[in-house]
Amino acid sequence: SVGTGSSGLQTAVDALGDKYSPTARPDGKYVLNIGHHVHGGEIFAPQHGVVHIVDGGGGTEGLSYSTVKAGSQWRTGHFEHLRATVTGASIQLDFMCGPVWPVKPAKEPCTQRSVMHSSTVSAGTGSGGGGGTAEFVTNPGLETNQNGWTGVYNGNSTVARSSAAAHTGSWSPRLGSKSSGLTTVGVNNVNPVWVTSSSAGTPYSTGGWVRATTAGSTVRVAVKEVSGTSTVASAQSATLTLNDTAWHQLPALTYSAKGTGNQVKLSLISTNLNTSRALFFDDLSLTAPN
């Protein structure tokens, strides 16, 4: 999401993907492109069948993302390194937490040598099928606007674009409450809905980060499949209690669509916010296999 690179190089890489990726041919093996130099870690949804990664989380400074480019699924300015584990035709990619940057020790805190983010890409097997995942969320952190994250879960909920906290970049969605007593509130994905036409049997997986202003706040993730005005089915993650005010990954949730052509809507819910408590979300994600 930072730097410009070479348009000629992008054209050449895209052309290789159009010829040798699993989306171009059943036995395609070109699934991954890794770049360096930029002092940050980032992963993009497949472009022309190829997953693109920046693995440059080192150097003498920690990177900040002032803008986020389309397709960016996850980013970090914390020092990191990439671990790749190859099993058969699949590669598991783990971004590993590096040391603290002494200038800003509280920047994107994580435990050194822990996994910050994981993704898996797969090559073709000769029998069809693609590699990597498709990302549906095109506004993961509200860096330029609030599109997609304006829906409120109920009348007590307040949702705003805030610069008070960010996991990456400078902005994030803030969930608050109008109630003086602890109550359930949430933010719904609307305008636009990220998944407008589901595919039956396809697993949709959520992701993202959350931070509480007050320890003890709770959060869970919910997915609802909708046909017209009717709910087809729904699912919820386990509830996570945030015992501090650091950033944490949202609880995992994978939902398999029941029908084809339906909307899949994402909600982020807390059961115990009031006017003095809030949650911030960032790097939100909703993916499905290609």
Describe this protein's structure:
- This protein has one helix spanning 7-20, and strands at 32-35, 41-44, 51-55, 72-76, 80-87, 90-97, 115-122, 133-135, 148-152, 157-162, 172-177, 183-190, 203-212, 217-227, 230-236, 240-242, 248-249, 254-256, 263-273, 279-289.
- The mean pLDDT is 87.
- Strands 8, 10, 11, 13, 17, 18 and 20 form a 7-stranded antiparallel β-sheet that branches.
- The chain contains 1 helix and 20 strands.
- The protein is mainly beta.
Share of helix, binned: under 10%
Q: Can you count the helices? A: 1
Largest sheet: 7 strands, antiparallel
User: Quaternary status of these chains?
Assistant: single chain
**Rg, please?**
19 Å
Low-confidence sequence ranges: none
Class from secondary-structure proportions: mainly beta
First-last Cα distance:
23 Å
Strand content: 35-45%
Mean pLDDT: 87
Q: How many strand elements?
A: 20
Q: In summary, what is this structure?
A:
By secondary structure, this protein is mainly beta. The chain has one helix at residues 7-20, and strands at 32-35, 41-44, 51-55, 72-76, 80-87, 90-97, 115-122, 133-135, 148-152, 157-162, 172-177, 183-190, 203-212, 217-227, 230-236, 240-242, 248-249, 254-256, 263-273, 279-289. Strands 8, 10, 11, 13, 17, 18 and 20 form a seven-stranded antiparallel sheet that branches. Strands 9, 12, 14, 15, 16 and 19 form a six-stranded antiparallel sheet that branches. A four-stranded mixed sheet has the order 1-3-2-4, with no helix packed on it.
